[in-house]
Amino acid sequence: MLTGKNALITGSTSGIGLGIARALAGQGCSIMLNGLGNPENIAATRHALESEFRVTTCYNGADMTRPEEIASLVAATDETFGGIDILVNCAGIQHTAPVELFPSERWDTIIAINLSSSFHTIHHAVPLMRKSGWGRILNIASVHGLVASAHKAAYVAAKHGLVGLTKVVALETAGSGITSNAICPGWTRTELIEPQIIARAQTLGVDIEAGGRSMLAEKQPSQQFVSLEQLGQLALFLCSPGADQITGTALPIDGGWTAQ
């Protein structure tokens, strides 16, 4: 159980971040949500978590491209909960295009959100974890932190960088009670992936479900999407005593994608 622990999860108003928030809340963890969405939907998400799991939640809409807002997010979490025990860096965006056509402004934004924001949250959260003598940093990378795919220059560069950052932080915090690990999901059916499925379906002239099956067939030998519940369970394990000596790793959960 994680009762009494506090988690800051970026990019947690939907998708993988929300799935991990639900898993942590299910173990009694207080949750600071962050991400995009209209106020009514975010309020409904908070209410659902609080009602189902009897935990405290808050929301902070910090822009993850702005270091000063990220610093304020970490400070607000500390002030609200009295510390940060678990930091989950999940904020991410995607854009696909050949490298020679990739807009420079999209490169800059993807690097800022998918990589630099994690540096800034870790930079401010680690001192709080050191003070308490315990902490879990979970960086949601991707199989694209381990291997590449065409037309994803910024995303692949950012996720490879995130895996490297994970390892450095693990070395710097080793023996302190803090661990730092990267979770590397394969295809997971989220809002981030849906545009790619739609584009694949349109290219093939098939329906959306067939487009999804085509994507799976190309990369993921299990032929099944990774579920949010499976990612949540992996996050819980990494927060458990059984994972006290697991640090600096990049753990694929990808249906065999990176085994090929």
* The level-1 CATH class of the largest domain: Alpha Beta
Number of continuous helical runs: 8
Secondary-structure element string: EHEHEHEHEHEHHHE
From the spread of the alpha carbons, the general shape counts as globular
> Helix/strand-derived class?
alpha/beta
Strand content: 5-15%
Compute the average pLDDT: 97
Give the full name of the CATH homologous superfamily of the largest domain: NAD(P)-binding Rossmann-like Domain
Tell me what the CATH architecture of the largest domain is.
Answer: 3-Layer(aba) Sandwich
Main sheet: strands, sense, barrel: 7 strands, parallel
Strand elements, count: 7
Distance between the termini: 36 Å
Q: Helix fraction? A: 40-55%
Count of spatially separate domains: 2
| CATH-defined fold name of the largest domain | Rossmann fold
Strand order of the largest sheet: 3-2-1-4-5-6-7
Write the layout of secondary structure elements.
Elements: E1 6-9, H1 15-25, E2 30-33, H2 39-53, E3 57-59, H3 67-81, E4 86-89, H4 104-132, E5 135-140, H5 153-173, E6 178-185, H6 194-204, H7 208-219, H8 228-238, E7 250-253
Helix pairs in contact: 1-8, 3-4, 4-5, 6-7
